[in-house]
Amino acid sequence: MQRWLGDIIRRNEARLLEYRRMGRAFRRDVLAVASLIVIIAFALGAIFAPWLTPYPEQGEGEPNLSEKFSPPSPEHPFGTDNLGRDVLARVLYGGRSSLSIGLMVVVIAVAIGTPLGALAGYFGGWVDELIMRVTDMFLAFPPLLLAIAIASALGNSFTNAMLAIAITWWPWYTRLVRAQTLSLREREFVAAARGMGVRTPTIIARHILPNVMTPVLVQATSDIGSAILTGAAMSFIGLGVRPPTADWGAMVSTGRVYFLGQPWFAAFPGLAIFLVTLAFNLLGDGIRDVADPQTRRSVQ
Amino acid sequence: MAFVEARDLTKHFVIRRGWFARPTVVRALTGVNLEIERRETLGVVGESGCGKSTLGRCLIRLIEPTSGQVLFDGEDVLALHGEELRSLRRRMQIVFQNPFSSLNPRMTVRDIVAEPLKAHTNMRGSELTARVIELLRQVGLNESHLYRYPREFSGGQAQRIAVARALALNPDFIVLDEPTSALDVSVQATVVNLLEELQAELGLTYLFISHDLSVVQHISNRIAVMYLGEIVEMGNAEEIFHSPMHPYTQALLSATPMVDPETRRERIILEGSVPNPANPPSGCHFHTRCPAAMAFCADEKPPLREINGRLVACHLHE
Q1: CB B188 within 8 A of CB B210
Q2: B interface test, pick of A8, A19, A188 with most B CB neighbours within 10 Å
Q3: ipTM for the whole predicted complex goes beyond 0.90
Q4: Is B14 near chain A, with CB under 8 Å?
Q5: pLDDT tens digits for A191-241?
Q6: Which of left, alpha, beta for B32 (phi over 0: left; psi -120 to 50: alpha)?
Q7: What is the 3-state secondary structure (H, E, C) of chain A?
Q8: B103 to chain A: which residues are within 8 Å by CB?
Q9: What is the pLDDT of residues B238-266, one digit of tens each?
Q10: Domain ranges for chain B
Q11: Is the CB of B148 inside 8 Å of chain A's CB atoms?
């Protein structure tokens, strides 16, 4: 057992050293570390929401009309909403839909966009033309408008909102990966592999994709924030999560009516959207700096 | 019959294609004929942009020639497709100038050297690792280097990794595309010596491309001198080195530093730079810079002629 473990460590020694170097560089980036903490806090809050709040049933959507519009107090730190539900509980529960929309949209978009971009960039010619013209078609629409159109066509639900946003999102990854692939394709290690008689699918899997994953990861991290924002916008106009399920966008939408008298109702979910979006953007920047020392913002 | 043979090999790169304008074409290689015997080293020299790398890459079909023929051990390389071509690639390999760009920075030495073996054999796991270690030893590295990344090595060591990879499938023919040019002068010799030892041991045939005549002269049996996509002089390495016939070869040689003052020759400084290969000069391509140019050199192109067992394309030797 111990020998076996030692073998693995020995084989990956260089890689482990690299990770340690990246870890050290990351820890020096205060903003990125703070962002990661914020994101983890929201994620834990969403996952353990039923145990963190004394009002899990209100988080799920149960009305509590006797206490409606209570201002923030020790019992309800964020106050209560128009149906008397604890806003803190709603914000914690709302993180479930917002964070999962953000994550899933990006996962789907990367899964569709990356292979298409690699194919377009590697093969060029008519394959490239075909794929890129299709992506151009998707990019020609304003993204939110297209998402709205798709979501209203598919019907109003969490899954459909997620799919709709993902469909407007993948072309960006196709473009990014294609551009990277175009330059990678001319690199000598790709020529060397071709000269050795390595099959094309193997070349793409072994030489192209691993080398495009860093920019994709950076882009994806920043995009989770934007996807959450778009998801919130969809819910805001009533095309996302269906009530009574909690969602930050929907809460801001309902709460804005009462904003002058009961500002806590809209402000706290709005603050959550703002913080999470910002955190993902800063985390993306941090990852870029660590993964690619050449573009590091500040010189130590 | 020669082991590797190029017949009338031509490669034009289209660099700009307009809707109405005629496409701009760079003639990287024009009608090149050459033969390489088994276990021989043919050196190819010339300035950058003269087409020497294009020649090497066309021979192993890393790029498709525009026209002409390549014969490898009697097989018509350009007629092969798919799996036939893939299996022929086992027998011809290439080593590039800069190991840090020809080795994938995200792969360990083991994976890099194992790559051709995975593509062509059923070797996997410990058997594969054993073969990789054997190859590393052959180029002067060892198993302690297996799980390291290319950037952890010096240029000379990294180039040894590239050589090990090229040797993995027991090839017959290796194109060495400036394999020492990116290395420190102090390690150039050790890499050249390694290549010579491997050739003797494994019976390899080399096409050695370089812009440095002294390196080529050391390792080659024969030398081909290229200028603007054409061979201007080709023959025995010693003979070319000691009595160059083409004015371009003479100029190249005069630029090579000599240790022995006896053999030191007068420096011939070439005027100007290499003409644009998209628009080569008329007649003899070299007449614009040739110190011995005659009036009709601009009109008439000298053919490659055999003179004293050597091929020269120059009006001076008629």
Answers
A1: no
A2: A188
A3: no
A4: no
A5: 999 999 899 999 999 999 988 988 899 899 989 988 988 888 888 888 877
A6: beta
A7: CHHHHHHHHHHCHHHHHHHHHHHHHHHHCHHHHHHHHHHHHHHHHHHCHHHHCCCHHHHHCCCCHHHCCCCCCCCCCCCECCCCCEHHHHHHHHHHHHHHHHHHHHHHHHHHHHHHHHHHHHHCHHHHHHHHHHHHHHHHCCHHHHHHHHHHHHCCCHHHHHHHHHHHHHHHHHHHHHHHHHHHHCCHHHHHHHHHCCCHHHHHHHHHHHHHHHHHHHHHHHHHHHHHHHHHHHHHCCCCCCCCCCCHHHHHHHHHHHCCCCHHHHHHHHHHHHHHHHHHHHHHHHHHHHHCHHHCCCCC
A8: 189, 192
A9: 888 888 888 888 888 887 766 666 655 66
A10: 4-91+171-317
A11: yes
Q: Does A12 sit within 8 Å of B89, measured CB to CB?
A: no
- pTM of the complete model: 0.82
Count the neighbouring beta carbons within 10 Å of the beta carbon of residue A147.
28
Confidence of residue A1 (pLDDT cuts 50, 70, 90): low
Inter-chain contact B149–A14, Cβ cutoff 8 Å?
yes
- What fold characterizes domain B4-91+171-317? Rossmann fold (3.40.50)
Locus of tokens 């003979």? B239
